[in-house]
Amino acid sequence: MTARASRYVAGAAAGLALTVSLTGCRTDGGGSDASDSGKPGSGKSSVHLTAAQEALGKAADKTADLKSFRATLSTSSVVSGRQTDLKGDLAFRLKPDPAMKLDVPAINTSGKTTDGFQEVFTGDTIYLKIPALAKRAGKPWVSFTTAEVSKATGVDVKGLQSQGRQADPALNAKMLTASKDVRKVGTETVGGVSTTHYQGTFALSDALSKLGTEQREEAQKIFNQAGLDKLNFSLWIDGRQLPRKITLTTPPGAKLKLDTAMNYVDFNKPVSIKAPAKSQVVDGLKLKGAGSNVPG
User: Fold this and answer.
1) Which is nearest to 238 in space by CA: 62, 117, 79?
2) Under a CB-based contact definition with an 8 Å cutoff, are residues 245 and 272 in contact?
3) What percentage of the chain has pLDDT greater than the value 90?
């Protein structure tokens, strides 16, 4: 993660921003082959790697076995002159049963602040707590199966969840290993933790090449819609080779203007994520026109 984690938020711009920041490029189970040998994050050394590339590779390796994490997500995106800003808290259980909870208190669109939303993703169901839907439903939560969201958005949600754990920090770290120009820019304190700050760029085509066939097809749908082919990034790595912060921004001239940040606050601590009580949930398909409200 995005992980990110998940992309299902109110508004297309916000949803896309989450997708870019949380949909990662893990190679395990994704069809990578021997061509990864010697590349950052492949677990094999190479005399051709710079010190900064080696640091990114170690971060990707170190985060590969995480069982859970918590993070704060902030993102700002501009599409056709319309700016959307949001900030939320994310909890993600990666093992043994993937589950996610995202809480965004408010959304600011072109200077106007509206109520935010809550989302719980567990099993094959997404639970949304969005004021507009709750008013129509008569209950706080509305549920959609991953199959229903996939049909509405054209994205294989279940496939992305099971194959990619889209909010996993390891996925983001792996994606950044595609950079050919990463460099160390200094040391900084992030959340009270001493870190080393790295900056660079990466081509999405290079990142996609690390994915298995199904993951690559879904990611291409998302990125092609956004008109993105390159991203700038900053990464802060602590003394345990864990990423403490990741930012992604689009270069000048991109169809979508994006500035998103993930601040990781906890790793491998217990994360309890449960579906809302059945008495508080309405099946989204029973709401007339509910499909148009499926985030994405």
Assistant:
1) 62
2) no
3) 24
> Between vectors from CA 254 to CA 251 and to CA 257, what angle results, nearest 5°?
80
Distance (Å, rounded) from C-alpha 246 to C-alpha 92? 17
| Cα–Cα distance measured from residue 177 to residue 243, given in angstroms and rounded to the nearest whole number | 13
* CA separation for the pair 271, 289 (Å, rounded): 34
Contact 81/257 with Cβ under 8 angstroms? no
Q: Is the dihedral of CA 176, 246, 126, 222 positive or negative?
A: negative
Q: Among 162, 170, 125, 165, which Cα is nearest to 276's?
A: 125
Beta-sheet pairing, 68-79 with 125-129: unpaired
User: Running DSSP on this structure, what letter comes out for residue 286?
Assistant: G
Q: Predicted confidence band at 166 (pLDDT cuts at 50, 70, 90)?
A: very low
Evaluate whether 118 touches 128 at the Cβ level (below 8 Å). Answer: yes
Residues 6+ apart with CB under 8 A from 49: 38, 40, 57
Chain segment 45-67, per-residue pLDDT in tens: 444 789 999 999 899 888 888 88
Check if the beta carbon of residue 182 is closer than 8 Å to that of residue 198. Answer: yes
